[in-house]
């Protein structure tokens, strides 16, 4: 008999039993969904990634993102320099994967939520902050990152970071990769929203992914992803990203959204699967 949960609309999100690793398994993305949603997959050489690029992400790489002018033209009126994310699907080197399962405490659950903030540099869209929280919402890792390219735009409205925050950071992408390899392993389930962007920024290839943008689109409209801000208000009655984004807040929101999804799934009220978007 399916165990009853406390109503999911409660902000307290308190369960009659602790959440477990296996509770997340029905929501893992299969290989096709990872590819379809542009998650990095292993390339033919160690450290290389590859992507399946469909028509929905193809664009003219001779045009800039900020003002759609030729890349050779002067900076636009919005920014002193043109910004771009050409590196997103073209910089395929220096990707990592996690290693063998780590020894964890008997009460620890190998599921974590991760969220990253990115900035624009001369190289494109680069990692500027990485935050990991556990299923209690506790921050277990949080690092501001100094990008490898010259900073053009700290993207403050969406990153929550100032130019000073980024320029004074001492950690690098390689620092974060090394740190995460000591915290996470190949069996770790990672939760996030539109997590392919975070995996690309982190240069991490991982196949145990739960993505709230996909999970909640399947419960409503399979071809329409909702933003995290919308989902937080609709399902948690929580206002987030008021002035800017905060990676810790976003990661915690993903945790609480998945607790709702799990609760409904266990109660038999989660209409996740469809013939056209089957994940099993």
Automatic annotation (TrEMBL):
Pfam families for the chain: RNase_T
Cross-referenced InterPro entries: REX1-like_exo, REXO1/3/4-like, Ribonucl_H, RNaseH-like_sf, RNaseH_sf
Keyword check for DNA damage: no
Gene3D superfamilies cross-referenced by the UniProt entry: Ribonuclease H-like superfamily/Ribonuclease H
Ranges for domain Exonuclease: 110-267
Keywords: Exonuclease, Hydrolase, Nuclease, Nucleus
Example of a GO MF term: exonuclease activity
Main subcellular location: nucleus
Recorded coiled-coil stretches: none
Cellular component per GO, a single term: nucleus
Keyword Hydrolase in annotation: yes
GO biological processes: negative regulation of gene expression
Compartments reported by the entry: Nucleus
Protein family per UniProt: Belongs to the REXO1/REXO3 family.
Protein name: Exonuclease domain-containing protein
